[in-house]
């Protein structure tokens, strides 16, 4: 133990003089013990025992000794069981004030008058009288003379209603036809009182018998009541005691209680959006859980469908949609791309021009700065042909995802994902950073990724993609691409070694997990862009991806910031943006956010390029250095979602 300042305390005056405040309380047991301990400590002061000085200082502090004194005084009073001298202290105060008014106005009299007039003193005497007159016990109605032997024990519960709801729901018991408390909402007024429990039978509310009333009529009485509400109830005989474990989950679906006819009480329900972190505080009911939003932990919980129920609702919803042939990304991407190839008729020159612009994007830093020799530094990434190919596949995938009744998408299977707080240890590998690409957009993902890597190519890197197309004479193996045969590529696909892949003009292109691993193993931060459909495949315990969605700003902001920007279309490169491009950008972003928002750790609006870069950089840093919510099975693979 070290003192906070690190300085040694002043040497004690051994046994010469006891601390005055301690001496005063020497008759009391605690102060007596305290005095002996201090004396003992002063003897050990020179023995260099770690912590002696701190303890000596602490025990000698005035506040501690005052506390001991207060404790001893209270202790004496507890033993004496004091009775009030008068239950009318406020009347005495009035008399004294009267007398003082007539008395000669000396300084003492003036001071006394001031003290007696002070609101605190008056409130203190009022409180004294309430206690002295025992005015705090509730006035109970007199017991009837003849109580039948089988009369059940009743409880009278008074709750003072303030602006918040009572936090309990009632229902009619189907068997007994009684009105009972259906559930008590965690953190609500009823729960905090500890007096109402699920299963308690209501007999009276504010003096009105509830027998024969409908639950809605009882609710009406409650709604009309102001101030104190008195319940007369028969407590449930065997109250179930549940040991609750708080669970944190990420909502993988949206929920709105007002649109759910099945919810037992819509007012008690809690709406949530996919991606929000919920604290599940009660899972006693198999169908309806109680939860709070992480952003609103102070308010009382609300009802949400249980995992099982929400899953059922989702399935019902999916089945109720018109049937569409179901396409899963990985099975169909080649077919989709071939189809595009037939349709697109891309001008070969345009594609080549695009490639040299994008793939060999010259950065502000040269290899001289990075590696020590003077060559341009290249950022590895998808070529433009692949980006164009992606776009078509994306527009096809959306219809598949939105109408697919089977569990081709695992979020359908699990509407809540259990999450835990995770902070990367400085010695651990960095988390993979994924920027979400959203098809025919030009939102700026590529631009931002390149700028970020350009800021510090030693720290940030892209993953080198694989391709089956022949190597060109200016290309280097492992720099622009890993050049592999079609057989090798296909065998990698079969063994799930690609995060994302596609085909263009009979050549396959893809980002492999191995390529990401290589960057991470070098101690760098790997930044890749992925289509939203591919995020799920990247969400593994090993890569722990942090997913950033780059979103377009308002159309007016796009118009003012994209004056010199260039869009890539299927037929042209370097084409200025038109208003319809911005509209399409906005619509696509909305669709993607509503379908995949549950996977986004951060959403950044790309208005001013400079501001976005700053936000992106700090988001990437936060992902690596600050605690974040991640799926529980990334940390403990046994946990269930
Ligand atoms: N904030 C911005 N302000 C101005 N121009 C921008 C901004 N962000 C991107 N741009 C420009 O917009 C154009 C399209 O950006 P980029 O190619 O990065 O889009 P993208 O999201 O990668 O789209 P895609 O992959 O579909 O081509 C580029 O000319 C880029 O320089």
UniProtKB/TrEMBL annotation:
Keyword S-adenosyl-L-methionine tagged: no
PDZ domain location: 156-237
Q: Which domain of life is it from?
A: Eukaryota
Region described as Disordered: 1-26
The chain positions of domain SH3 read 244-314
What region holds the Guanylate kinase-like domain? 432-621
Provide the transmembrane region boundaries.
none
List, for all copies, the residue spans of the domain called L27. 82-139
Record's Gene3D superfamilies? 2.30.42.10, L27 domain, P-loop containing nucleotide triphosphate hydrolases, SH3 Domains
Establish whether keyword Hydrolase is in the entry.
Answer: no
Give the record's keywords alphabetically. Answer: SH3 domain
The entry assigns this protein to a family as follows: Belongs to the MAGUK family.
Q: What is this protein called?
A: MAGUK p55 scaffold protein 4
Organism from which the protein derives: Latimeria chalumnae (Coelacanth)
Species lineage? Eukaryota, Metazoa, Chordata, Craniata, Vertebrata
């Amino acid at each position: 133990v070290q003192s906070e300042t690190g300085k040694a305390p002043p040497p004690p005056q051994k046994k010469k003089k006891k601390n005055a405040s301690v001496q005063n309380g020497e008759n009391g047991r605690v102060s007596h013990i305290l005095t002996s301990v201090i004396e003992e400590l002063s003897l050990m002061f020179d023995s260099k025992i770690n912590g002696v000085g701190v303890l000596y200082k602490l025990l000698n502090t005035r506040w501690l000794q005052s506390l001991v004194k207060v404790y001893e005084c209270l202790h004496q009073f507890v033993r004496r069981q004091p009775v009030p001298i008068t239950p009318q202290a406020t009347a005495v105060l009035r008399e004294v004030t009267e007398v003082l008014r007539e008395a000669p106005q000396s300084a003492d009299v003036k001071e006394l008058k001031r003290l007696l007039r002070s609101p605190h003193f008056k409130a203190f005497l009022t409180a004294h009288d309430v206690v002295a007159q025992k005015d705090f016990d509730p006035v109970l109605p007199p017991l009837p003379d003849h109580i039948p032997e089988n009369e059940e024990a009743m409880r009278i519960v008074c709750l003072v209603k303030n602006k918040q709801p009572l936090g309990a729901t009632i229902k009619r018991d189907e068997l007994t036809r009684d009105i009972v408390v259906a559930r008590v909402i965690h953190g609500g007024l009823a729960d905090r009182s500890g007096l109402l429990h699920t299963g308690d039978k209501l007999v009276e509310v504010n003096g009105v018998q509830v027998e024969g009333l409908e639950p809605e009529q009882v609710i009406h009485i409650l709604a009309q009541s102001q101030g104190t509400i008195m319940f007369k109830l028969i407590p449930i005989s065997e109250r179930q005691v549940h040991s609750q474990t708080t669970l944190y989950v990420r909502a993988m679906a949206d929920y709105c209680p007002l649109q759910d006819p099945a919810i037992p009480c819509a007012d008690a329900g809690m709406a949530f959006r996919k991606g929000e972190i919920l604290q599940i505080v009660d899972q006693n009911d198999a169908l309806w859980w109680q939860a709070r939003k992480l952003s609103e932990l102070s308010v009382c919980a609300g009802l949400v469908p249980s995992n099982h129920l929400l899953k059922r609702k989702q399935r019902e919803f999916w089945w109720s949609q018109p049937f569409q042939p179901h396409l899963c990304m990985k099975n169909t991407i080649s077919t989709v791309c071939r189809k595009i190839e037939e349709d697109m008729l891309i001008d070969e020159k345009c594609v080549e021009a695009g490639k040299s612009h994008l793939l060999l994007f010259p950065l502000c830093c040269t290899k001289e700065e990075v590696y020590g020799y003077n060559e341009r530094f290249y950022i590895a990434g998808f070529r433009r042909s692949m980006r164009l190919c992606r776009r078509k596949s994306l527009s096809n995938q959306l219809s598949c995802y939105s109408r697919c009744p089977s569990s081709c998408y695992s979020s359908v299977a699990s509407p809540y994902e259990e999450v835990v707080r995770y902070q990367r240890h400085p010695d651990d590998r960095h988390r993979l950073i994924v920027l979400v690409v959203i098809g025919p957009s030009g939102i700026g993902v590529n631009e931002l990724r390149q700028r970020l890597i350009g800021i510090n190519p030693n720290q940030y890197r892209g993953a080198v993609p694989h391709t089956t197309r022949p190597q060109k004479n200016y290309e280097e193996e492992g720099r622009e691409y890993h050049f592999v045969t079609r057989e090798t590529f296909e065998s990698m696909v079969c063994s799930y070694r690609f995060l994302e892949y596609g085909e263009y003009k009979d050549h396959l292109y893809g980002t492999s997990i191995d390529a990401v691993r290589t960057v991470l193993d070098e101690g760098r931060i790997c930044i890749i862009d992925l289509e939203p459909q591919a995020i799920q495949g990247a969400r593994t315990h090993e890569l722990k991806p942090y997913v950033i969605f780059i979103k377009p700003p308002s159309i007016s902001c796009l118009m003012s910031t994209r004056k010199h920007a260039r869009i890539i279309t299927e037929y042209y490169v370097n084409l200025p943006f038109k208003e319809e491009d911005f509209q399409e950008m906005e619509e696509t972003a909305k669709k993607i956010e509503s379908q995949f928002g549950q996977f986004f750790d951060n959403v950044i609006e790309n208005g001013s390029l400079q501001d976005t870069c700053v936000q992106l950089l700090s988001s990437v840093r936060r992902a690596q250095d600050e605690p974040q919510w991640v799926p529980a099975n990334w940390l403990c693979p046994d946990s269930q979602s």
